[in-house]
Request: fold
Amino acid sequence: MAAPRLFRPASRVLSSRLSTFAKRPAFAPLCAQSALRVRSYATEGGVKEVTVRDALNEALAEELEGNEKTFILGEEVAQYNGAYKVTRGLLDRFGPKRVIDTPITEAGFTGLAVGAALAGLHPICEFMTFNFAMQSIDQIINSAAKTHYMSGGIQPCNITFRGPNGFAAGVAAQHSQDYSAWYGSIPGLKVVSPWSSEDAKGLLKAAIRDPNPVVVLENELMYGQAFPMSEAAQKSDFVLPIGKAKIERAGKDLTIVSLSRCVGQSLTAAAELKQKYGVDAEVINLRSIKPLDVETIIASLKKTGRLMVVESGYPMFGVASEILALSMEYGFDYLTAPAVRVTGAEVPTPYALGLENMSFPQEDTIVTQAAKLLRV
Amino acid sequence: MSSKAILQRSWRATCRSPRMGAPKPTYAPRRWSGSISQRPGSDRVLFPGAVNSKFTTDMSFLKASDLPAIPTYRVIDSDGELVDNSRAPPDVSDEEVLTWYKNMLSVSIMDVVMFEAQRQGRLSFYMVSAGEEGIAVASAAALTPDDVVFAQYREAGVFQQRGYTLKNFMGQLFANCNDTGKGRNMPVHYGQNYPRIHTISSPLATQIPHAAGAAYALKMQDLQNPNRERRIVACYFGEGAASEGDFHAALNIAATRSCPVVFVCRNNGFAISTPTLEQYRGDGIASRGVGYGIDTIRVDGNDVFAVNEAMKEARRLALTDGGRPVLIEAMSYRVSHHSTSDDSFAYRARVEVEDWKRRDNPIIRLRKWLENKGLWNDELEQETRDSMRKAVLKEFSEAEREKKPPLREAFADVYEELTEEAQAQMKELKRILETYPDEYDLRPYKDGVKGLD
Reply:
């Protein structure tokens, strides 16, 4: 784990007796550094426009190249180059032993991947979408997440589960679910969710290298989107720490915490808030859902006094609910207004375009809710 | 010990505990009388797990590759001629065969139009069933309207044969007020109340155990009411879905609970891009039915008569002895792409597809049969195709312009009853719409603001 973590009150009682509680580090310098770099189309030498799809592809290729224990398996990943072309060219480059097409049996190939991980390999298991991972969720949660613990640490489980998560365009109830909260609630799993191309590459590489089971929740709607990628991020040793959020836009009036595709929407909303109301919203890209970078969120909240969380999952028992609870536990005295959630609607995702749009946060939803919160 | 075994043990312990009294007599004989002890001198296995197996001193492994492949039942050949002239011609009236043919044609014409419409961005998704119309139409023709169907997503022909109209199809595809799914489902996720076809479910193979359960329910209902016409469940899926765990669980539970269900596997050679060679290594899906103790047949899916006869017989078998499952594996070739999200020429040769298209497909084969019998000709073909295409395009453009479902449907059906929250939200929405009528254009919605009542 990257930074010293804040503990939940219940576990703090326990940990304070066992070890000295890690002091909260100084937050301010961390925040200042990374403000607003991604969206500006920087022209300085070496920056390149890369789509999220290509960034993921690059990460996979580099890790397959660098570590012979890795292999990728899933439906359509080899011959067909992946349902969303994320694994394009990998079969040609690494051959059928490292890039494996499976029968349509999620329970089968997930179980096989977990077994291979327990035996010491580092499989990368692709789901055509995480909705289909429901067929094999027992393997992910009951086997991958728990075996290291249950075996007394004998059995490693260095496995990466990846694939698109959340809603896409017009795929309705059974293909649109956001699993961030599901996997985020499981001890033993790490969960990351990239937004930009740098996120995608750095987090996927970190996930593959991490010795634990890591769930990488990508987003289908982001695959084709291009982002500038710094020279450092283009290198094959570029890895992002799991458990660190990134401040995408610095601000002083409101903290917007978001993840995956909603980060982009939040940034657009923040720009509109500035233009319309002259308020400066700080936008935090979570990057990692578990472990959660509570420090960054609380530090920002202390600065702005207001918190809004934007996500596309369901409203109840979600990532946003969790962050609101944490803000109450660690930042209550700094809040000048009740924190709010902007989430997906409490309804199985409908197909019809009008209904679908109403089921998920849109940019104007974020702006309206933020304006309400700020009373502007 | 597995957790199931622990549960079972504790359940038994509870049942036998003196405080609970004697175990219920209805369960006792079923559970405990089956224990078989090994008798001395027996030449057969008397272990509980395999009865009637002879002992042998020859240690040999069964090799799947040594067993002959299960034959494929066929009535007419690819020239539309009866294969076995010694048998009676198919027991179907000319009018009925013509209906089948027109239903197949209608589906295939709708497919072409809708595939193009998706390419133009007028709907998000579509799935065609080219090459498999015969399996769907001819098998559905063997069902009674009271039979229940669970389909996968390539069975438009089943819907067509069971009375689903072009208006129904288009209503669903365009999510308008004629959509029984009220605009909530992806395209091709049709559903119909009567004759009942359960709404298509996207996750692969989940319908197979559901079908076993529904068949069990029908069996129970028929036991309670012996006077009513007996019904079966027909369950459709592809050979790719048969790789999912649900398939295996379903066949086993259907066999052990003796459920009157006919499983129809459309083996079309491809699961999206995965050819059957990488999907499984046995003798197709049919060999698995035998393994689960299920009566099984393999048929030529391009031969509507073979499919129909097999389905009729399967239906009869499924209702004998209080009910039992039957498996039909219908062989075909998926001429189309998997869906509009797929370009199949990335993984198979175009020439192979063209070859199949020309050489054999259910529509052409039936057309040859009809022409041989003098029931069909080029003129009729052209006429029918033109009028069908017109009908499809008419319903298409009407469906696009049709009103959307009433506003209340945006809130309804998440639960059986509207939740208090949803009621409050509807009330609030109504208040806003009535207070600011100029701000909201409600004309596209059926019944306008009254649609909230």
